[in-house]
């Protein structure tokens, strides 16, 4: 069979398979329209139920035509491509509705010529009429589906995809010299390559798919044809193919690749068990609302719920406490307001341990002292003292700080600072026993000496 006949046979086969798949798609659509109930619960997967409820692994075989050029452009030492046979096998793990990882192995042949003219090698200067390259490749690619998520159809029978990855190419070029003799390379060349592809997938059955695809392969090297013309240039080749893909797993599980998440969400909203749960929740909410209504009921309007009102039926406007009972306030004429006790000035000002901060309790004495000092022109010595804890030098500083705190307060109250002298005596002149805490408290003081 020549190349032209092979191409016609391939195209005719593709048309027949595509027609069969489209007919199957119409049948499936008609069936889905007639369905009024959700599929059996044993085969109905749940959202967020994990990949275990789907079939995810598949294996595929394919065959097609190779060419030493790509549709997106580029250069080739030979201007006439000769279509050759390529083949492949793939294994895929579908990780989500839209993404899977696919391991591919391909083999085949590339060929081309210049229709009788020569191509000159830029490195050796030799002339060549044609080339033929046998290749094998292995690659790992990510495959992205963008046809299975739809708001228009519950089930799709056509899926579109793109792929991209990286791999290793083994190939052995055999250029044909100007004398008509073949000059094969001694061994296979191994080089990295990047496959970029796109395609369409037809669902033939729950476990069988028919694929049509096109892949451009970009080789990281310059030896694909065996001729270094138009050097340097990236060698590339393409592979157009048709193939079948079989998904492993029980028929009770769906293939993850063909699941429509939009339809799943719709089904779960109308799931009988879910609707029962919703009705139960509605009943519980109604009970809670009834309890809340009872808690809010206040028959006498005193602001206390009937359930907690210990004095029901109080008169409107009555002031009640938290239990709903009236509050009895004392009459005004029975309330005796006593006069504030008079504070004597010049009393000792006490301090906390190791502190020179004035205590709030000392303010009345200081206010009375300030008032008396403003009423006359006498001078006063502020004598600071400390208890016996700490060193003598520290206690001297602390006692002076205490006296200065008193002076600051009096000056801020309007007393002339020149009339106030400050002295720190430390732990000397105790007025109580420093061996007891009560005595030490009394010794932490400032005295007024006129």
TrEMBL record:
<keyword id="KW-0998">Cell outer membrane</keyword>
<dbReference type="InterPro" id="IPR050330">
    <property type="entry name" value="Bact_OuterMem_StrucFunc"/>
</dbReference>
<dbReference type="InterPro" id="IPR036737">
    <property type="entry name" value="OmpA-like_sf"/>
</dbReference>
<dbReference type="GO" id="GO:0006811">
    <property type="term" value="P:monoatomic ion transport"/>
</dbReference>
<dbReference type="GO" id="GO:0015288">
    <property type="term" value="F:porin activity"/>
</dbReference>
<keyword id="KW-0472">Membrane</keyword>
<dbReference type="InterPro" id="IPR006664">
    <property type="entry name" value="OMP_bac"/>
</dbReference>
<dbReference type="InterPro" id="IPR011250">
    <property type="entry name" value="OMP/PagP_B-barrel"/>
</dbReference>
<keyword id="KW-0813">Transport</keyword>
<dbReference type="InterPro" id="IPR006665">
    <property type="entry name" value="OmpA-like"/>
</dbReference>
<dbReference type="InterPro" id="IPR028974">
    <property type="entry name" value="TSP_type-3_rpt"/>
</dbReference>
<dbReference type="Pfam" id="PF00691">
    <property type="entry name" value="OmpA"/>
</dbReference>
<feature type="signal peptide">
    <location>
        <begin position="1"/>
        <end position="25"/>
    </location>
</feature>
<dbReference type="GO" id="GO:0005509">
    <property type="term" value="F:calcium ion binding"/>
</dbReference>
<dbReference type="GO" id="GO:0046930">
    <property type="term" value="C:pore complex"/>
</dbReference>
<protein>
    <submittedName>
        <fullName>OOP family OmpA-OmpF porin</fullName>
    </submittedName>
</protein>
<keyword id="KW-1134">Transmembrane beta strand</keyword>
<keyword id="KW-0406">Ion transport</keyword>
<keyword id="KW-0732">Signal</keyword>
<keyword id="KW-0626">Porin</keyword>
<feature type="domain" description="OmpA-like">
    <location>
        <begin position="338"/>
        <end position="450"/>
    </location>
</feature>
<keyword id="KW-0812">Transmembrane</keyword>
<dbReference type="GO" id="GO:0009279">
    <property type="term" value="C:cell outer membrane"/>
</dbReference>
